[in-house]
Amino acid sequence: MIFSRDQSPAKKAFIHSLIFPCFFAFLMFSVRLIEHLEEVNLYFLGVKPLKIEGIPGIFLSPFIHSSWGHFYNNVLSFIILGVTLFYFYRKISYKVFFTIYILAGTWLWFGGRDSWHVGASGLVYGMIGFLLISGIVRKHIQLIAVTLFVVFLYGNFIWGMMPLAKELPHSWEGHLWGFLAGFTAAIVFRHEGPQKPRYFEDEEDVEDDQEERKEN
Questions:
Q1: What is the predicted pLDDT for the residue at 210?
Q2: What pTM did the predictor assign?
Q3: What is the phi/psi pair of residue 99, to 5°?
Q4: Cα(166)–Cα(104) distance, rounded to whole angstroms?
Q5: Which of 115, 97, 1, 94 is nearest to 47 (CA)?
Q6: Tens of pLDDT along 50-97?
Q7: Which domains does the chain have, with CATH numbers?
Q8: Residues near 162 by beta carbon (within 8 Å), at least 6 away in sequence
Q9: What does the alpha-carbon distance between residue 141 and residue 145 come to, in Å, rounded to a whole number?
Q10: Can you tell me the distance from the alpha carbon of 97 to that of 23, in angstroms, rounded to the nearest whole number?
Q11: In the predicted model, what is the mean pLDDT of residues 12-28?
């Protein structure tokens, strides 16, 4: 049994935050293992911008990786960011995740190079974008600390969104659209989920009142 009455709410929340990201990562691993064992390449399940055959990739591309190295680069970040998202934004985590999922893939289909785009890096960048922006727009001290944590781990992420060379081994468009999807989710859901504690709002109200009195 995963949960018990003796567990603290924080421990239960942490265990809950592990379930979906790890399950999703397990699916990615399973697909990569099948590709490896069967010696097949499932790149055709990726996103092919502005092509009918590329539409299924909007939903399937995060499970497809070109190599074990590509998989490892994505899966560790995916789990770290996924657990962070599902722990601190538990009530809206699924809405946020699948909003990023659909927007990132759809925008990539409309705005990517004429090539097959595969991998979960769009989701990784999407969660980076959400976690970076959400704490700031909510003015929530604990969530801003999460923002700083993400900056510490992925401070150089911005270079992955830039076309620094003609031929790149990664989809910089997937990274860019993923980040913008996360940014959008942070704005759209800013009034849902965890909010700034009322205590700090009251303090600000008192300070504003004191300033008004001084001016008068």
A1: 52
A2: 0.84
A3: -65, -45
A4: 22
A5: 115
A6: 999 999 999 999 999 999 999 999 999 999 999 999 999 999 999 999
A7: 9-215 (1.20.1540.10)
A8: 172
A9: 6
A10: 14
A11: 93
